[in-house]
Amino acid sequence: MIPGLTQRRRFSDLSEQEILALAISSEEDDARIYRSYAERLRADYPDTAQVFDSMAGEEDLHRQRLIEKHRERFGEVIPLIRREHVSGYYARRPVWLIENLGIERIRDEAEMMERDAHAFYLKAAQRTSDAGTRRLLGDLAAAEAGHEARADKLVDAHVGEDAEAQEARTAHRKFVLTWVQPGLAGLMDGSVSTLAPIFATAFATQDPRTTLLVGIAASVGAGISMGFTEAASDDGVISGRGSPLKRGIASGVMTAVGGLGHALPYLIPDFWTATTIAMIVVFIELWVIAWIQKRYMETPFLRAAFQVVLGGGLVLAAGILIGSG
């Protein structure tokens, strides 16, 4: 392990050797993913499977060229650095999840992979002072752009969508990465994490005003914390997740909304009326979260509902038990 990799590092802090090592491991992962796509599609879409086989082979060639360049400049020992070690670096969907993907979704994933890789090589080339390395990274950026064009041809071959639809998919992806994902994370955090303090206070004091103040403080505090954390965790340059300011606003606002939803019923002076309405709001919040996961993250609704409702129910029960004790 490279010193300092116990925590995620910023891409801008990587040395040229570490950038090459990151590119090598990324190419290896992408080749493995393409081969998994090929096996998934081979029975029903053999032509598309061959395309993915070819793309995996090209990723292998890219990795070999990168290894040769590393050997030339830095020797035989390649540092162990992977995507998960770098803050803001684009992530890949776990390979086992492709069992739930159809050809259209796999096509979208392939386009996204090549777009991310192209952006990475362009940024990596800018960080490199060695002329030979810069040329290699530039060549690989061009090759990844060619892969993206090849992935686009899958649209014509199997779906027949036009350029306007392609632009719509790109815009939708950016919307999900910039607004939906951080907003959903915030809504989940605000809705679930504030359950225990709010309901513990409610049942401990049975005072709507005190519960309201605690709920507002917990919700606003969590919103500020989540907003700053999201904005500071990823500048969006490599991951393509968009403006950190926009993501911070989405995460912070939705975190506060998630908590305030079941805090504001305590504006009602009658404790049991307020508590009953707050519990109904909690139920609605959890189902909205499950629906968003189904709508934008393609998580099966029943699985999303089970996970969210179970987790929220446990936190709610903990708050009630603590407050009642």
Automatic annotation (TrEMBL):
Keywords: Membrane, Transmembrane, Transmembrane helix. Its main location: membrane. The keyword Transmembrane applies. GO terms for cellular component: endomembrane system. Signal peptide: none annotated. It holds the Pfam family VIT1. Residues 18-154 form the Rubrerythrin diiron-binding domain. GO terms for molecular function: manganese ion transmembrane transporter activity; metal ion binding; oxidoreductase activity. Gene3D superfamilies: 1.20.1260.10. It is found in: Endomembrane system. It is a multi-pass membrane protein. The chain crosses the membrane at residues 274-292, 304-323. PANTHER family: BLR7895 PROTEIN, RUBRERYTHRIN SUBFAMILY. This is Rubrerythrin.
